[in-house]
Amino acid sequence: xxxxxxxxxxxxxxxxxxxxxxxxxxxxxxxxxxxxxxxxxxxxxxxxxxxxxxxxxxxxxxxxxxxxxxxxxxxxxxxxxxxxxxxxxxxxxxxxxxxxxxxxxxxxxxxxxxxxxxxxxxxxxxxxxxxxxxxxxxxxxxxxxxxxxxxxxxxxxxxxxxxxxxxxxxxxxxxxxxxxxxxxxxxxxxxxxxxxxxxxxxxxxxxxxxxxxx
Length: 214
Fold this sequence. Notes:
mainly alpha
């Protein structure tokens, strides 16, 4: 089980990551002509309207989670296919930019507090910064996986030729079951497919952004 220090380190960065992700979706949708998220109260930096109970619990069980999807009405979009591409991309892009920001802060602050005094307040803040960078990287990569309803599925839609897109629409309804199946398979077998996907991206971007080798 997680102790209090771990919860303190993990929860604020996670809330920030999912909030900026969903806000970016809503902001881009509004720019593209759809005010649905705005009217639903989702264009806010308050994390509470964005929280998904199961997605939040997953943070503590598998190390990543998700938020409640921002509502988008394609009837309000000028070019639904193209605009939905940018709306979907806005979430992962906001997380990668956030990860870069936290990485720069880590480079400026340094890791001395974490190395020499693992129990001090400064060490906890340093660990929080590292986790903030890493959870933003994980959330970006996770959402770019092209399995519905993740953002990557909407990005892929816009890139596929017409005939391939029609076939993709037919299998989309199975996406949530595939997603949950992969997660449950990891619980049961201990073989975490998503962990294998995240690991190289975490290593590469943690080093690029913060100079941390993991």
